[in-house]
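Message: I would love a firmer grasp of how sequence relates to backbone shape in proteins. Thank you; the sequence and its tokens follow:
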Amino acid sequence: MTSVSLNPDELMQAARERTQQNDFGDTHFSQGLEILLQTLDRHIADEGFRKRAGSRIRRNLETRLRITRALGDTPAIAEQDITRPVILTGLPRTGTSALFNLLANDPAARALLNWESQFPDPLPGHQPGQADPRRDMVSQAIEARRKDNADFDKMHYASADTPEECVNLHQFAFDGVQLGFEVMLEPYASWFQNHSLQALYDDYKTMLQMLLWCRPGERWLLKAPAHMWAVDEVISSFPDACVIWGHRSPLDVVPSISSMTAMVARMFGGNIEALSDKQLGPIVMEFYATSLERGLAARAHQDSAHFLDYSFKEFVDTPLDLVEKIYQYFQLPYGEDIQTAMQSYIDHNPKGKHGDHKYNYEQYGLSEKMILDRFEFYLSDPRYAPYL
């Protein structure tokens, strides 16, 4: 028997007491919260990791309470206009993070930073542009975690101020892919794939407006492979979205993201039996194949002008040519100053700067044939085959 409770009512009450707030806003989050906690309760056995999971969920509940308070205190947040956001998506490990970091060197790009994705709510009395002391808290936490998980930098280097996936914001709606391993576990996995994500994206848009009020910027720059699950919701929420879609051979993608998922699961859940290495690969493969199928199907009935495709090889070989193509396609201002800033970033951040990420098929119960068979719909599609 475990002693650490993962009970939603207890965690919600603890969040209320710690914040002295009672209003969680729209109650759509409650179903995801309950199912997420059921999933963690079923699969995380170690007492220490259960305690950490419960604390993380409670903190997210506290943030949701503070978000609701801030919306009531500051009506101007809801008036923030989000125009022509640039959104990167596609399969993971397609260079989206590196391209994201590169594009963030445009002064007009308002990238979502790691620290603020964890604290989207303004402090009481906060004024736009004011420094937030929570940024230093996140920096210290990242450095402490880096000492314990140095290999993670080889897969996904992060600091408090690096641009970060906007799925971090999804945690406060208790929906989406969360940290990336919970969505591979039942019952959360089935629930996530079989309900509308519009309420999630309504919350997501509100948080982007809140962050834009806190730290103004010209044009949002966002990134997450998880947006493939919600192409229709993205376009509904941002009708003038500019979506950059990355492509790479699934033979490279699947074992790499399996390795990353395994590391994240160990970091935040310990030894999860259902995600042991040999079982993990096929689960991860199916998850990302399904997200790609749904994303491409949704693209087919949206205006194609929203989307620009690129290949991983294209980005690695000629990054500035790709950047120029992106700016031309979406008719974004692109001057010599932007090009110089991006070239400087490339010069100071060569590939492999933080080490090489090593992985293989067999470790995760995969084979080339399994991957080729499952992604045949993608590999044989004449619209995307040239990018692979």
Observations:
- The chain has a mean pLDDT of 93.
